[in-house]
Inverse folding.
C-alpha cells in the first residue's frame, strides 16, 4: 500500500501526516493495522477524526473478496484460446495461444517465427473478425507474404491488422503506452475489438539498446518492457506474442546482457522453440527444392502443454502445415 499523503481524504492534513510519521505510521497499511485509540493517544489526533480517515482509506485501498464461482464464470467469459490455423500446432499448445498471458516464439534467424506470427494474425482477423496490432521491430512483416496466406477477402482481413514499425526499445514503450491509453479510455476505434498484440522481434531492438547502456540501466529498461507487456496481457485479457532469437534467451556469464534472461523468463507463460528440422533428409533430399521447409516446434515452457513435447511441420506458401 502507498505512503500516507496529505489530501488522500479531506481530514488527512499535512500536520496529521507529520504526527503519524513521527510515531512510525507512514503507510496506509500502518494506519489501518494500528488501533484507532493508540493513534489518538500517541499522535494527539481526535478519535472521531481517526475513524473518519480510517473509513475512507479502507474504502479506497481495501481488496474485496470475490466468490470462486463468479471468478470462474468471469474467466470463462473473458479468456479465449486463439487458433494458430494449424491443427497439429494447436494440439501441441493445448488448443492454441491463450489470451491473458505472454507467449514467446524463439529460434534462430529464418526459423519461421515471422511466418508463424503472420499466420496467427491472419487467422484472428479472418476467422474471428477481431483486431490485431502487429509491432514490427525488424521490418519482417510483408503484405505480399500475407496475401499468399489469405484465402479470401484480402482487403477485409488486412483491415483488422494494424502494423506499427518500431525502431528502438524506447519507441516500443511509447507504442505500448499509447495502446494502454486507448484501452483504458475504452476507445471505440480499433482497440475496441483488439484481441492480440504481436511484437516481432523484441530482441532486434532490445539487444541493440542494451549494448549501449550500463547493467543497471539495461535492467531498468528491460524490466519496464516486461512489466508493460505483462500488464497489458493481464489487465485487458489480450494475447501478447513476442518473438526473440536464440541468443536472446541464453543467460550466460559471457553474454553482454547476462542476468536479463532470468528477469524475462518470469514474464513468459508459454515458450516454444522453432528450428529447421532434418526429418526429411532421409526421405527425400529434394523436398526443400520442392517448396517444403521442415520446421521442428518444441515446447520449452508452458502452463498448459507438456514441456519437451515437439512436432515436425512444413512451412509452405500457405503457412505452417503438417508434414
Amino acid at each position: 500500500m502507498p505512503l500516507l499523503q496529505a489530501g488522500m481524504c479531506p481530514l488527512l492534513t499535512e500536520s496529521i501526516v507529520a504526527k503519524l510519521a513521527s510515531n512510525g505510521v507512514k503507510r496506509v497499511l500502518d494506519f489501518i493495522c494500528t488501533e484507532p485509540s493508540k493513534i489518538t493517544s500517541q499522535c494527539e489526533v481526535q478519535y472521531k477524526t481517526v475513524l473518519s480517515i480510517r473509513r475512507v482509506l479502507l474504502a479506497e485501498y481495501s481488496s474485496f473478496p470475490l466468490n470462486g464461482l463468479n471468478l470462474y464464470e468471469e474467466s470463462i467469459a473473458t479468456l479465449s484460446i486463439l487458433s494458430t490455423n494449424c491443427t497439429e500446432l494447436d494440439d501441441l499448445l493445448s488448443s492454441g495461444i491463450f489470451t491473458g498471458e505472454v507467449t514467446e516464439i524463439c529460434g534462430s534467424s529464418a526459423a519461421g517465427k515471422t511466418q508463424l506470427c503472420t499466420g496467427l494474425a491472419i487467422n484472428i482477423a479472418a476467422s474471428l473478425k477481431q483486431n490485431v496490432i502487429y509491432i514490427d521491430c525488424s521490418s519482417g512483416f510483408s503484405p505480399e507474404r500475407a496475401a499468399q496466406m489469405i484465402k479470401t477477402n484480402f482487403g477485409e482481413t488486412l483491415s483488422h491488422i494494424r502494423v506499427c514499425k518500431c525502431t528502438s526499445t524506447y519507441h516500443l514503450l511509447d507504442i505500448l503506452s499509447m495502446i494502454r491509453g486507448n484501452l483504458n479510455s475504452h476507445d471505440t476505434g480499433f482497440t475496441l475489438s483488439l484481441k492480440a498484440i504481436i511484437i516481432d522481434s523484441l530482441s532486434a531492438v532490445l539487444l541493440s539498446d542494451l549494448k549501449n547502456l550500463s547493467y543497471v540501466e539495461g535492467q531498468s529498461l528491460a524490466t519496464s518492457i516486461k512489466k508493460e507487456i505483462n500488464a497489458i496481457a493481464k489487465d485487458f485479457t489480450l494475447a501478447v506474442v513476442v518473438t526473440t532469437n536464440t541468443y536472446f534467451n541464453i543467460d550466460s556469464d559471457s553474454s553482454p546482457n547476462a542476468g536479463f534472461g532470468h528477469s524475462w523468463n518470469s514474464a513468459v507463460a508459454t515458450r516454444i522453440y522453432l528450428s529447421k528440422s532434418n526429418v526429411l533428409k532421409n526421405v527425400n533430399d529434394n523436398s526443400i527444392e520442392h517448396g517444403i521447409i521442415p520446421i521442428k516446434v518444441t515446447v520449452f515452457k508452458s502452463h498448459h502443454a507438456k514441456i519437451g513435447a515437439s512436432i515436425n511441420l512444413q512451412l509452405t506458401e500457405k503457412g505452417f502445415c503438417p508434414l
